[in-house]
Amino acid sequence: MFHTCASSPAQCEYRSDLERSLGEAMRQTAETDEFRRDLVGLLPKLRRFAMTLTRNASDADDLVQEACERAITRSHLWNGEGRLESWIYAMTRNLWVDEVRKRKVRTGSGTVDFSEQDDLHIEASADKAVYAKQLHKLIMTMPEGLSSVFLLVNVEGHSYREAADILGIPIGTVMSRLSTARIRLAAMISEQTERRT
Amino acid sequence: MESTQGLPLEVRLSAYLDGQLSHSEIREIDVMLARDEKARTLFNRLKLGSDLGRKAFEDMLHDPVPLDLVRSIKQASAETGQNRMRSPLSPPSKEAPPKKRLWKVAGAGLALLAAGVGAGYLSAAWQNPVPPPVHIAVARNWLDDIADYHRIYARQSRHLVEVPASESQHITQWLTTAVGVDFSIPDLSAKGLTFEGARLLVAGSMPTAQLIYRDQDGDIFAVCFQKSEPVPEMTELTDSIRDDLGLVSWQRGAGAFVVIGPSSDPQLESIATAVAQTI
């Protein structure tokens, strides 16, 4: 089919460019909407991952918001291969590393290395609801280095390589942190069982 | 597959638990666990820690997602991505300043608030009184009515529905006649929703059917529809938010449809998709 234009060739060309641009803009808008829907569906998982980094809900939500906004502006870079959450997890982790660095500069404080942290113990008298809360608290007080690795590998089934890439650490560190996290968790539950008996 | 030769026993057993070892190392660990009581005890401890932690993390997925966070991604983020979506023919706009993080904005906001209150107090002392504000009625559509109804009925524990789910056949006949839209009651059990029953409403001055569902946490969702101007093909699903409620609406044939539920629920979109395919 021939496209005819009653106006000058320059006007024709301009209109054709305009149509192409509008079509492209509409396509991109639809893609961004779909991407945004995917992000909303991932929110519970993104918040959970962010909590392992920040260990408080308020900072976690700020972090997730910023990571999602960044992901949307860069959604054209997402190639659709692998898991979308892995891509955003890495982005989230990078943002948090930047934030911790800035906080260290501002206040002289930052995260505490897991080897320097005290263990949290579950109260022996806890009933089921309180126990669940304490379990949640326990996870939140686990050092960032341990809980993030544990979540990615043990809960979400990422391979060691994927976890290492997301967290920017060597595979050997993933392995050692994972075993430390498991032993710590087991120690806490064993201690609680002994207190109850 | 990773090699754990030479690493501490707990690291090797942990990797064995994850199935991340080569066949030869798996065989080696199998033999070790069969023979070595100490290794078995350590392995059981690692397994116990795994199970406990997994349970705690799975529980975290049930925490409600804050409404503000969902909104910021559904709506405000479109502006963030504006530069990328700009038409190449449109004039280059100035780069929008990067959005500051909330923890920074909070501090700046408090400072501005304090300054604003002070300045307002001083200026009000000698300026002429401000004329009273003019209230302009905002145009409402049927979705506003649906949201209002939902807010009221979702709180009714004993009188949630007009006709219970046990009378499904009657519901279909009754609402098809009253509303003028053919439908079948969507089975949303795969989405964790149980059909509770139905109501007949008036929304945007039109008779409107409301099919009510409850999820496992007790949250109420509704599928509402009414007669509309015919459209040649099904329209796109459109998101909108009314305070704490999320709505996903579309049109098909001579019917307008909407799914309504808590806007913090990330499943709303997929529920609407399921409804659009089955209703």
Structure description:
The complex is a heterodimer of chains A (197) and B (279). Helix content of chain A is 75%, strand content 0%. Chain A is an all-alpha fold and 197 residues long. Chain A folds into 2 domains: 98 residues, Orthogonal Bundle (Rna Polymerase Sigma Factor, Chain: A), CATH 1.10.1740; 83 residues, Arc Repressor Mutant, subunit A, CATH 1.10.10. In chain A, helix 1 packs antiparallel against helix 2, helix 2 crosses helix 3 and helix 3 packs parallel to helix 6. Chain A is elongated and about 90 Å long. Chain A starts with 8 loop residues before the first helix and ends with a helix. In chain A, 36% of the residues are buried. About 9% of the residues of chain A have low confidence. Chain B has 279 residues and is of the alpha+beta class. Among the domains of chain B are: 52 residues, no CATH class; 137 residues, MucB/RseB, C-terminal domain (Phosphorylase Kinase, domain 1). Chain B has a 7-stranded antiparallel β-sheet, with helices on both faces. In chain B, helix 1 crosses helix 3 and helix 2 crosses helix 3. The chains are: A mainly alpha (197), B alpha+beta (279). At the A-B interface, helix 1, helix 2, helix 4, helix 5 and helix 7 of A face helix 1, helix 3, helix 4 and helix 5 of B.
Short description:
The complex is a heterodimer of chains A (197) and B (279). Chain A has 197 residues and is mostly helical.
Strand content of chain B: 15-25%
**The CATH superfamily title of the largest domain in chain A:** RNA polymerase sigma factor, region 2, helix turn helix motif
Radius of gyration of chain B: 29 Å
Q: Mean of residue pLDDT of chain A?
A: 76
The proportion of residues in beta strands of chain A is under 5%
Largest interface, counted by CB within 8 Å of the partner chain's CB: A-B, 63 and 57 residues
- End-to-end Cα distance of chain B, whole Å, is 48 Å
Total beta-strand segments of chain A:
0
CATH topology of the domain at 142-278 in chain B: Phosphorylase Kinase, domain 1
Organism (chain B): Mycoplana rhizolycopersici
Protein name (chain B): Anti-sigma factor
Region (Disordered) (chain B): 77-98
